TrEMBL record:
InterPro entries: CoAse (IPR045121), NUDIX_hydrolase-like_dom_sf (IPR015797), NUDIX_hydrolase_CS (IPR020084), NUDIX_hydrolase_dom (IPR000086). The keyword ATP-binding does not apply. This is NUDIX domain-containing protein. The lineage of its organism: Archaea, Methanobacteriati, Thermoplasmatota, Thermoplasmata, Thermoplasmatales. Residues 8-142 form the Nudix hydrolase domain. It holds the Pfam family NUDIX. Gene3D superfamilies: Nucleoside Triphosphate Pyrophosphohydrolase.
Amino acid sequence: MENTREDILHRSEAAVGIVYCKGEILLIKRMEREDDPWTGQIALPGGFSRPGEMPQETVIREVMEEVNMGFSKESIFAQLEPKSPNRASWVKVYPFILKAESLTGYSPGPEVSEVRKVRLDVRVPSHTESGYESFIFQDWIVWGLTYRILVDFIAFENKPV
């Protein structure tokens, strides 16, 4: 679903999927679009909820639309604490961990220019030119909301059982 500036003003819930398998996750590069405030950025697959849609349903639908991987509600391993983008504080984003058997068979959907499988243990902590904390995965810079969600995920993953 498109995320024009006008759409964002009228929506309040979204969900993202941390598609995870054996220390690796999927990241997407958003398609370059003039009307998208997050155009071209690196993100987790996800998007806005439709009217009446639960966040769990949103994440399953959006992951299928953006990386062409099918999951069920039973695939949801955990939900992390919801967060809001700094530029859209009225939006609540629900992060879900989706455990995959393998990270194969993914491909970019129409709103995504590229999908990459990245190892979490090779992230490089850094800062953007504007001074925001970030991770670098190869030549992709993850910052903002996606960075904050990944920090929570890494803390969750490293919690003693």
